[in-house]
Amino acid sequence: MHVKQFLIGAALFGISLSASNCTSSWANSLKSKLSSKTSIQCTGDNQRWSDYAAPVPGAIITIGEENDVAKVIAAASKANIPFLIQSGGNGWADTFTLDSNGIIIDMSNLKTITFNKNKTQVTFQAGATNKDVIDAAWDNNARVSASTCNCVSVLGATLGGGLSRTQGVYGLNIDNLLSLNVVDANGTKKTVTAKSNPELWWALTGAGANFGVVTSATYKSTPIPQANNTAWTGLLIFDESKLEDVITAIDELTLEPEMQMDIYFTANPATGLPAVLVLPFYLGSEEVGREKFASILDIGPLADGTEVIPYNTWNSAGDAFCTQGGRKPSYTTALKTMDPTAWRNVWDEYTAFFDQNSEANLTTILTECYSTAKTAKSVTGTGSSYPFRDIKCYAITIPWYTSPSLDSEALQFGQNIRSYLADTAGTSSPSSYINFAHGDEPLSQIYGSSLSKLQKLKLKYDPQKRLNQWFPLS
Ligand SMILES: *[C@@H]1O[C@H](CO)[C@@H](O)[C@H](O)[C@H]1NC(C)=O
Ligand SMILES: *[C@@H]1O[C@H](CO)[C@@H](O)[C@H](O)[C@H]1NC(C)=O
Ligand SMILES: *[C@@H]1O[C@H](CO)[C@@H](O)[C@H](O)[C@H]1NC(C)=O
Ligand SMILES: *[C@@H]1O[C@H](CO)[C@@H](O)[C@H](O)[C@H]1NC(C)=O
Ligand SMILES: *[C@@H]1O[C@H](CO)[C@@H](O)[C@H](O)[C@H]1NC(C)=O
Question: What is the reported pLDDT for 317?
């Protein structure tokens, strides 16, 4: 009757689970209610960004039509079958509890994207990635403020807040949302706006995964001709002896609305050896960009790959991070200040891990720094539950390897770096952006000052705790 039973059924047929379709009465009766574009598959194979602590479901339902999401959730809730929504499959936290009793509802085929006539609004479905939306905007002579990794689903990132290179001008992704098409935990569909349901809107914009399944959204867009839709960016490579100078310059640099930057510790693509890479971003000309980032450029990079490039290539420098598979148990720290002594410790820890584990040579410390010029101002109306609008930099330690035998060392490595940075973060208490967090943090570190209100709302909007795979509030 339930998922367990169709798994047993599949096993009895003696065929590889990944190649067989589910044959239980639950799956069969569900299948007859769904469009022919939606498929149900028993699985052993669910490709995600990180294999570490990845959910291993009993079945994957790949949605072909948006309307089917509500039907699947209604049926799953009725039969008490746990479910997890997956779009890009990039979520790396270890909070998933889904096992073979549960299902993954795979949204990745829902990619419809439509602009209104004057290109001031875009509506897209849950499977649209940053790349999908950016490419569509480019083709429409428009700019949508999406996030920095091409493979991540826009809504996946947005429901946790949604950082963006251009957030200094346009605000966080949640600040660009106009309306959400939501399915609740019982499978009832509703359209939610800040006006129609301010309380639920507040909860969805920062803690979305706990409050509803968003199947599509309408978002702000800015019409702008392709020829004007450009920015100055590119990699600067520094010798590690300049590390303290670079960190101090970042700490002292106020990121104006048009500015954003990343700093990486990663293998230099040219030499394969650990290097300090900086990726400045300026929404404007090269001339002004160089002025704004002069304090970093003046330190003297070994190589300067910056240039003015079009909007549809801004994320390209990060494409290597999108590679799926491998084990990547990641850790994060939200930073208001960048301390050179702490970062020297981080560098030493990073190079030691890199040198001792040749299979972990893609291991990266990625730190993204954003202008808070617009985000720190409270947004109009009811606001949102995202608690860290005044954070400048988000450090993420990404150990990257394949052997589970390296897990304990990798976890220790990530925790050591998190503790070096936490001591000098400049925040009143340790803070972790939900989309970057590991899963072992106290909830107050994830939800900040929004926690107690979110926990109250959870009792109202998901009393049966069905939406409980991503940093569950209850
Ligand atoms: C599984 O279902 C899909 C979609 O309904 C179908 O195309 C495929 O042939 C099925 N595979 C098997 C092994 O029955
Ligand atoms: C664009 O069209 C929308 C309706 O789709 C309208 O509300 C808005 O005022 C228009 N904006 C401009 C700048 O023309
Ligand atoms: C595009 O850029 C050109 C040249 O800098 C400028 O003259 C024009 O006003 C810009 N157009 C828009 C719509 O921003
Ligand atoms: C990492 O090691 C593999 C296997 O030795 C090698 O093929 C690859 O080029 C290395 N990658 C980097 C970034 O050095
Ligand atoms: C789902 O249905 C149950 C039983 O009727 C009800 O107690 C619960 O509040 C409903 N949940 C939502 C999110 O409406």
Answer: 86
225 lines ligand 3 (CB under 6 A): yes
C-beta 186 within 6 A of ligand 5: yes
Give the SS3 label for residue 244. helix
Class of domain 113-225: alpha beta
- Residue closest via CA to ligand 3's atom 2 equals 228
Specify the range with the lowest mean pLDDT, choosing from 345-359, 380-394, 428-442: 380-394
The H or E element containing residue 202 is helix 198-207
Ligand nearest to the CA of 185: 5
pTM above 0.90, yes or no: yes
pLDDT score at 23: 59
Any residues with CB less than 8 A from the CB of 270 and at least 6 apart, and which? 237, 303
Which ligand is closest to the CA of 460, given by its number? Answer: 5
Q: What is the pLDDT of residues 48-60, one digit of tens each?
A: 999 999 998 888 9
- Name the residue at shortest CA distance from atom 5 of ligand 3: 228
Pick the CATH number of 230-448 from 3.40.462.20, 1.10.10.350, 3.30.56.10, 3.30.160.20: 3.40.462.20
d(CA 83, CA 23): 18
**CA of 198 relative to ligand 2 center, distance in Å:** 24
Q: What kind of architecture, by CATH, is found in domain 19-106?
A: 2-Layer Sandwich (3.30)
Closest protein CA for atom 1 of ligand 2: 118
DSSP H helical segments within 24-152, as ranges? 25-31, 67-78, 130-139
Q: How far apart are CA 12 and CA 15, in angstroms?
A: 8
